[in-house]
Amino acid sequence: xxxxxxxxxxxxxxxxxxxxxxxxxxxxxxxxxxxxxxxxxxxxxxxxxxxxxxxxxxxxxxxxxxxxxxxxxxxxxxxxxxxxxxxxxxxxxxxxxxxxxxxxxxxxxxxxxxxxxxxxxxxxxxxxxxxxxxxxxxxxxxxxxxxxxxxxxxxxxxxxxxxxxxxxxxxxxxxxxxxxxxxxxxxxxxxxxxxxxxxxxxxxxxxxxxxxxxxxxxxxxxxxxxxxxxxxxxxxxxxxxxxxxxxxxxxxxxxxxxxxxxxxxxxxxxxxxxxxxxxxxxxxxxxxxxxxx
Length: 293
Prior knowledge:
The protein has helices spanning 18-34, 69-81, 160-168, 184-209, 263-271; strands at residues 4-11, 39-41, 84-94, 97-105, 111-116, 142-144, 147-151, 173-177, 181-183, 212-216, 219-222, 229-232, 236-238, 244-247, 254-261. The chain has 293 residues and is of the alpha/beta class. It has one domain: Nitrilase/N-carbamoyl-D-aminoacid amidohydrolase, CATH 3.60.110. β7, α3 (160-168) and β8 (173-177) form a beta-alpha-beta unit. It is globular, with a radius of gyration of 18 Å.
């Protein structure tokens, strides 16, 4: 296996029509393949507007089984053009039990991996606890033809434990399908610091774990005028030293393509041996809440 892997980040603006979003994603995946891409990642919940801005039981009708209609279509595409696709979905496990999930479809058109979002937020206009049960599959690394990849989702980005455990599973690249943005009423005062915090935490995961971090966000303004969210784009790739090797704008649909040299993982970990120097015998406190003695 070559140490070079070409990845694509599909930064999209979502339509209210899921069929249009799927068609757009398929066209962008095809364009990425024409440029030699081997792994492509779509944004979190890419089939729809970000419906978690409100608590509405009607939205459960959006959920689908895995495998199901969307994975069937993208499995067919992956096989036809020989590409690995990371597909985030609103998953219906059984009646009354739903997950914010993503699957990895390999170049043969098979579902190769399945991850369910572990950390579920409940913030103004991010009412995900109303819809999603926390993941029950654990943290994952999938040994694909083009590298070992881990898949985490959006809110997982803020937890160093998630990145560390995914890296310990063997991941060389951690993909974060994402839906994050500014509340328009807060953007002027807090927007710059919020975006900087988001970029900083992902850079820290890359450095602390000696991995590539790939975050794929949506763009566009969604929601009611007085409570709309402006999704801030800025899809980005960090190398294991925390350097930016590819980045998107904050307001445009783009396909960001870059080469990832997986040999850097070994080299960086040799020079910055953070994994070697971990004191796992002293980390029992991580299993306690802050108020516990």
